[in-house]
Specification:
This protein has 8 helices and 13 strands. By secondary structure, the chain is α/β, with parallel strands linked by helices. It is elongated. The two termini are about 25 Å apart.
Length: about 300
């Protein structure tokens, strides 16, 4: 893992740290665990109880993250530009967006995600042999608008508002969809040249009164008919199963879109029903993500 967060402040009482673990470690053993699990990351246990002293300690630590049970400490760290994780015990914490109940839930992967979200650095969702699938960022708006204006791209990618409005909408999407659901539409980047060549991911769609993550994708013409969507489709389905813990996903495809229906079949989707929408016949498909996906050949 390429960790961008290089320093963690554990703002928890020294005598309570061992109690937060599944086994009752002594504090020396706890620090040994930190050294083993958090290789390459500096850590600091305990903070000054004096707000001024704490502020002085954290003032130049914008690249760090604070793990704390103290609402005031979390608020101050957030104002100073640090990423924060709250450890919730008695009562609700008002400051942090990310909260855990036990310190064992503060894993390297979780910390890296929280840090990247604070710094507006896209999280990587999956790596395939040829592509990186990652979250969007504000810097991607120009690329998204360019792709959306190409005549052969899917209509849902086409911008319908001014640049400034689209920028606000992208910001709101990232800070709502990703934070609330941990999935959404992601960008596909070519590993060889770094070019953004399409989108893939999940929106929320109702089927028979139940909300499911619904697979969608769009790939630029130059990358079609070479297994791009199949390769990336398998990767995001594995992410939904293994990381999100999702059991079922759906897919809505217009009846005349034969290539997408063929792709859905290769990915293991089965047809549930047909619907009429905006004068078009839409095929509704569903896939159960457990047990594990069968290996696909690209």
């Amino acid at each position: 893992m390429n960790r961008l967060c290089k320093r963690i402040f554990w703002d928890l009482p020294m005598d309570e740290l061992p109690k937060e673990l599944e086994r009752k470690f002594q504090i020396e053993e706890f620090t040994d665990i930190l050294e083993e699990v958090w290789k390459g990351v500096n850590y600091h246990i305990g903070l000054s109880s004096n707000p001024e002293g704490m502020a002085q300690m954290l003032r130049f630590e914008e690249d760090a993250i604070l793990v704390s049970q103290e609402d005031g400490h979390l608020k101050l760290a957030d104002e100073l530009g640090l990423a924060i994780i709250g450890v919730e015990r008695q009562g609700k914490l008002s400051s942090p967006k990310y909260v855990v109940e036990e310190i064992k839930d503060v894993t390297p992967v979780f910390v890296e995600k929280v840090y990247r979200r604070k710094k507006d650095i896209p999280c990587v969702i999956a790596e395939t042999p040829r592509f990186t699938i990652r979250e969007t960022s504000d810097c991607d708006l120009d690329v998204l608008m360019r792709m959306g204006q190409e005549p052969d791209m899917h209509p849902w990618m086409r911008p319908t508002n001014s640049y400034d409005v689209e920028k606000e909408m992208l910001y709101a999407y990232r800070h709502n969809m990703y934070d609330l659901f941990e999935y959404g539409m992601w960008l596909i980047a070519d590993k060889e040249n770094g070019a953004i060549i399409g989108e893939i991911g999940f929106s929320n769609q109702l089927m028979d009164g139940v909300m499911y993550p619904d697979l969608g994708y769009a790939v630029e013409e130059a990358y079609r008919r070479m297994g791009t969507a199949l390769e990336c489709g398998q990767a995001v389905l594995e992410y939904m199963r293994d990381t999100i813990g999702c059991k079922v996903v759906t897919c809505h495809i217009q009846e005349e879109n034969v290539p997408s229906l063929s792709l859905a079949e290769k990915l293991g989707f089965s047809v549930c029903k047909k619907e009429e929408k905006d004068g078009k016949t839409v095929i509704v498909l569903k896939k159960e993500l457990a047990p594990a996906l069968a290996s696909l050949q690209f």
